[in-house]
Amino acid sequence: MQHQFEYHDGTTRALNYLKNTLTYNKNTVRRYERHWLLVKQHMECYNQEWISPDVCRDFLLTIYKGRLYKELSQPEKALNRSVCVLSQFLQHGTLQRERSNSYLDGPIGALMKDFLALKSTRRLKPLTMEKIESHMNKFNLWLSVNNIFNICEIEPKHIYGFIKSLPPNKKALIHDTLLDLKGFFRFVYENDIIQTDLAASVPKDNYDHHAKIPSYYTEDEIQRLLNSIDRGTAVGKRDYAILIIAAHLGLRASDIARLKFENLQWEKSTLIIQQYKTGKEILLPLIPVVGNAILDYIQYGRPKCDEQYIFIQSKAPFVPVRPITISTCVGRRFINAGINIGQRRHGAHALRHSLVKELLKNRQTLPVITEVLGHQKTQSTKHYIRIDTESLSQCALEVPMVDPLFYAQKGGILFL
């Protein structure tokens, strides 16, 4: 498909696709059309006759004005979404399931793609590759909004500025980003693309993956969470099924998002999947509370579509939900339920931790818990033992009282 059109032709095709193929509602289509008129005004300012993905990207850069996506207002995010939809249609002639805010354009983006290609030859897991690409996306976007488009223009101050822009409380994100930036700069230096080894300028951190006790919630809090969901709506049925699976089976968000009908063995009351993170196949019991929740969603809440994935977006385009959607859904439901989360994490993984807490409370052995979680090694499961503070307290040794004569020796007052 050609990638540039006369404005009226390109937008008319896109609007017809949204209305007739994806059956978007009228209000959404009107909003998109209003937003696209702003792109037209931008084109007129620069005497541009043809609309294309590049024009859409240039327009969005004027909206960002040096800011990150998270710093945009809600109206600006809605505008960003509308223009991205138009750009994607102009590029592909359809709306594809893409990672949000993917940005590996330009000369630096091309080098990042080469770096990712090299990484892909090292048999890294798909999830690891996705994380690396996400970090590259964010860095390239930050460089673009700060008017840096050539690899030779990057200085240590730019690296520090980008790291400073990341959420300070996301220690794991910062740690992984630092490692990937170091790897990228080592790649371009060793291939003689830059003359300065910027990998040496990437700051170090003291992140400890096991520094904190995993967040978990009590059985009562989990029940309050589930009871707070309105199961009379399609979204409620979907979210309830998602939370039931996470709470009772302990599946990761990445595995819940990728559940297919073929994974459900109704006649055997089992669920069999190959885990996305580890590649290990696990067999879990399809207990009634889980099976009934899934069935209720499939029959009365799931949009009619040909997708083989179970969980689908509630609005067009009806495509499978993403893992981030699962985590966001769980987090939102915790807040709406009025549960005091304090400093605890409240995504899908917190429900996985909570299941471990209950298993430990019921005196399940470590090998059994390892099998339930689908860990490849028992060593990975040992990280969760710290949750069981009640049992650990029984291992504490009593500290004997100090003999009063100790303080009285050599004249007392601790030998002074």
Account of the protein in words:
- GO terms for molecular function: DNA binding.
- This protein is mostly helical and 416 residues long.
- It has three domains: 88 residues; 95 residues, DNA polymerase, domain 1 (Orthogonal Bundle); 176 residues, Intergrase catalytic core (hpI Integrase, Chain A, Orthogonal Bundle), CATH 1.10.443.
- The chain is built from 18 helices and five strands.
- The protein has a three-stranded antiparallel β-sheet with strand order 3-4-5, with no helix packed on it. A two-stranded antiparallel sheet has the order 1-2.
- It starts with a strand and ends in an 8-residue tail after the last helix.
Strand and helix layout:
Elements: E1 5-6, H1 7-21, H2 26-45, E2 50-51, H3 53-64, H4 74-92, H5 106-120, H6 126-145, H7 156-165, H8 171-190, H9 219-227, H10 234-249, H11 253-257, E3 264-265, E4 270-274, E5 281-285, H12 288-300, H13 323-336, H14 348-361, H15 366-373, H16 378-382, H17 389-393, H18 404-408
Antiparallel strand pairs: 1-2, 3-4, 4-5
Helix pairs in contact: 1-2, 2-4, 3-4, 5-6, 6-8, 10-12, 10-14
Task: Offer a concise description of the structure.
This protein is mostly helical and 416 residues long. The protein is built from 18 helices and five strands. The strands form two sheets. The chain has a three-stranded antiparallel sheet with strand order 3-4-5, with no helix packed on it.
